[in-house]
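Figure 6 in text form: structure in, sequence out.
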């Protein structure tokens, strides 16, 4: 049973989601957490991962390590996105099964669902059609992970593996590098810089009309701990986790502009592609068990921006 004395491995503990899980576990009084930085344990190395699980025997695992990034990074490094994610998850799944992990949470992604999925996207849309081409390698790795969780459970007649599928996560420790960031962090940095430079206008990609759902990292962490605590109520399938609310990119941009204090003009470059018009998850199956997100979009963006101002980037540039 998941308890305050359980031995817990948080893989990817310095990342956006992993660091939120660490904050949550520590504030809830979980005292037996093990972590390894990439410099100490390369999770793409099967032998090292097996030796680590054999020596440490974690009972619960949050698998928040992986190769992540926005469209530009997905297009530039498709084989790395496929290879690194597949290797990391495959190595950890095998080691977890072999060395008796009690429960493990794997994270899928909304981009693993077909482009033509109904909106909000139900879990059952998986593998019913082609996914978005630009993130296909990443999506295929995520689909493999979800199918692997189900398959291990079936083959070994257990419920060891849990798959959660968050929509776009944002928060502290997000990646603010414009080459590899996701939408939210990229916008926060662009608005911050526009304000710092006193720019009278900011030019943004697309029309601003596409609608997206964002999940604050600490809410994703609370869903993860909730899933561990209520694992017996979960079926052998993947569960969407999101707010159920979508917002246009133009609205998100306005909220960020207000929080950052940028009062120039926002110009939309409609010659750039918009991507899918709407992407929101149907998280009803998971919320019916009793979980709900707590952080509003405004508060989440404000807290993220406050953190950004104290980050290494800000220290170097402000
Ligand atoms: N962010 C989202 O919007 C989102 C949405 C849905 C699902 N997810 C999934 O959630 C998980 C966490 O995402 P995230 O956004 O928190 O990612 P992130 O901020 O990029 O963090 C990833 C973490 O993985 C670690 N890592 C990567 N490769 C490694 C390796 N070979 N060996 C050891 N550690 C390695 C990184 O370590 P370093 O710090 O050393 O680089 C980092 O701590 C991923 O599986 C992602 O696909 C994310």
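Output sequence:
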């Amino acid at each position: 049973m998941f308890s305050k004395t359980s031995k817990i491995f948080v893989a990817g503990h310095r990342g956006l989601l992993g660091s939120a899980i660490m904050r949550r576990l520590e504030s809830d009084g979980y005292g037996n957490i093990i972590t390894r930085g990439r410099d100490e344990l390369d999770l793409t190395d099967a032998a090292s991962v097996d030796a680590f699980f054999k020596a440490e025997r974690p009972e619960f695992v949050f698998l928040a390590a992986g190769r992540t990034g926005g469209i530009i990074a997905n297009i530039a490094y498709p084989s790395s996105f496929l290879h690194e994610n597949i290797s990391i998850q495959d190595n950890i799944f095998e080691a977890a099964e072999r060395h008796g992990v009690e429960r493990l949470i794997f994270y899928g992604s909304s981009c693993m669902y077909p482009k033509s999925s109904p909106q909000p996207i139900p879990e059952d849309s998986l593998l019913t059609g082609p996914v978005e081409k630009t993130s296909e390698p990443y999506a295929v790795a995520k689909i493999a992970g979800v199918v692997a969780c189900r398959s291990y459970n079936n083959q070994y007649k257990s419920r060891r593996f849990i798959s959660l599928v968050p929509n776009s996560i944002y928060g502290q420790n997000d990646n603010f590098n414009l080459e590899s960031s996701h939408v939210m962090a990229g916008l926060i940095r662009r608005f911050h810089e526009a304000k710092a430079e006193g720019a009278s206008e900011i030019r943004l990609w697309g029309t601003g009309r596409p609608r997206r759902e964002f999940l604050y990292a600490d809410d994703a962490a609370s869903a993860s701990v909730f899933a561990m605590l209520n694992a017996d109520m979960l079926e052998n399938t993947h569960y969407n986790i999101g707010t159920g609310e979508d917002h246009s990119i133009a609205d998100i941009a306005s909220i960020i502009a207000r929080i950052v204090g940028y009062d120039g003009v926002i110009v939309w470059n409609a010659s750039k592609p918009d991507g899918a018009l709407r992407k929101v998850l149907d998280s009803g199956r998971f919320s019916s068990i009793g979980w709900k997100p707590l952080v509003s979009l405004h508060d989440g963006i404000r807290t993220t921006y406050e953190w950004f101002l104290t980050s290494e980037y800000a220290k170097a540039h402000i």
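Caption detail: The longest strand covers residues 161-166.
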